[in-house]
Design goal:
It is built from 13 helices and 21 strands. It is an alpha/beta fold. It is globular and about 65 Å long.
């Protein structure tokens, strides 16, 4: 539906939730009145939150559309209240202007605000530089590593020197592949007990330090994706003090889960950046509180069911999150921070990092929102997810809040 009236709803305006009111949403905007016959939804005091912006989207199309498609991804965004996102597909490196143009045309059909990271090397192989200047001219939001380690430091320098001509930010998942060495989980007591191949913290911190030093030397802005341990946050803090332009995000699941989950041996907990200790998880929360962490990412990474319904060690890493991110995190964020800060972390700052206009809720302007009942529990079942994938670490659990619907790009979707 393009037009809808939300009755008894609390809109988020100027940093706070207003008293229950009536919102007439017509042709993408909040207006004073709606045409006769417009459907009315009783929100029963639910919150109208500015729609979210997802960092770390991967919909697999075109090379792996057997797993997931752009249509599936947009469906998931609407179910989860995301009006936009930053797209970087590990299966589809955007390393020239033709690939960028093709994926932009696919995205444009769906009317959401999706930005794209160009690859700084062809095929994420760190052997040949991509056409970064042309990618920037074509609208690339920045340059990414495809979550692959750039182990050749000289190539990293060449890429950042060339990319610096565009003024765009470089996005890295800091994880040294030689130190990871086939590890799957955090190096700690749980991995030792289970006899699992592990990834030490230094695999992250050494990679982060190398990138920070190169960014300082070349004066290039960088962003760290999916930071997982407190030591990395301290490196980021120290780098900012000496003038390095560095931002970072933490993944929603790393705020909810620590490595004690390994005793379940659930392959849905097999993700690219391992779940660290409870102490690390608390350090990430403190990073949100102090402002060291700029944003919360979703890293929506679909995996075929047959590639997840196997032993933990044999599973393909990855987790989907768009449909559950807001109801899973909202109450915890508001409890430890505030509603205004939660909106910054999940919507405003992620959009700014991608160069996209943040969502807002005010009369007369384009309005994108998600309707959330913060006190209505929700069971995470198979039917919640778009497409045919189910690789969610929260599958089968009860979340403290429930999404009732979203109004994105002028279209109301009831969940």
């Amino acid at each position: 539906m393009r037009n809808v009236i939300l009755d008894n709803v609390r809109p988020f305006v100027d940093g706070k939730f207003e008293n229950p009111t009536k919102m007439c949403l017509v042709d993408g905007a909040w207006v004073d009145s709606a045409p006769e016959g417009t459907p009315v939804v009783d929100a029963k005091g639910a919150l109208a939150i500015p729609a979210l912006f997802g960092l770390g989207l991967d919909f697999k199309e075109p090379l792996r559309d057997d797993i997931y498609t752009f249509k599936d991804g947009v469906d998931a965004m609407r179910r989860g209240g995301f009006y936009g996102g930053l797209y970087e597909s590990c299966a589809n490196a955007i390393d020239d202007s033709l690939k960028l143009s093709a994926i932009q045309q696919i995205s444009a059909k769906y009317g959401l605000s999706i930005a794209f990271l160009g690859a700084f090397s062809n095929g994420y192989q760190c052997k040949d530089l991509s056409e970064m200047v042309e990618l920037a001219q074509g609208g690339a939001a920045g340059f990414g590593d495809g979550n692959q380690d750039c182990s050749r430091t000289r190539f990293l320098r060449l890429a950042m020197e060339y990319g610096s001509m565009t003024g765009k930010r470089f996005f890295f998942m800091p994880l040294d592949d030689s130190l990871r060495h086939h590890g799957l989980v955090h190096e700690g007591c749980y991995a030792d007990t289970l006899g699992m191949k592990a990834i030490p913290r230094v695999a992250e911190t050494i990679a982060a330090f190398k990138i920070l030093e190169m960014a300082r030397f070349l004066k290039v802005p960088v962003h760290f994706k999916q930071v997982s341990c407190g030591e990395t946050l301290r490196l980021i803090e120290d780098a900012r003090k000496i003038g390095v332009d560095v931002t970072c995000d933490v993944d929603i699941y790393h705020l909810l889960i620590d490595d004690s989950c390994l005793f379940n041996l659930d392959s849905n907990y097999n993700v690219p950046m391992p779940f660290r200790s409870a102490e690390d998880r608390e350090a990430l929360w403190k990073g949100l509180e102090s402002g060291v962490v700029n944003a919360i990412s979703v890293n929506h990474d679909p995996v075929l069911r047959q590639d997840k319904e196997v032993n933990f060690e044999d599973a393909v890493p990855g987790a989907i999150s768009l449909e559950v991110a807001l109801p899973a995190l909202w109450k915890s964020l508001c409890g430890r921070l505030s509603a205004a800060r939660a909106v910054e972390l999940l919507s405003t700052v992620p959009a700014q990092l991608a160069g996209v206009a943040p969502a807002e809720i005010r009369k007369g302007a384009a309005t994108n929102l998600v309707l959330l009942d913060p006190d209505k529990p929700m069971q995470v079942s198979h039917t919640l997810f778009a497409g045919q994938v189910r690789n969610c670490p929260l599958l089968g659990q009860e979340l403290p809040s429930k999404i009732l619907g979203s109004y994105l790009g002028g279209l109301w979707t009831e969940v």
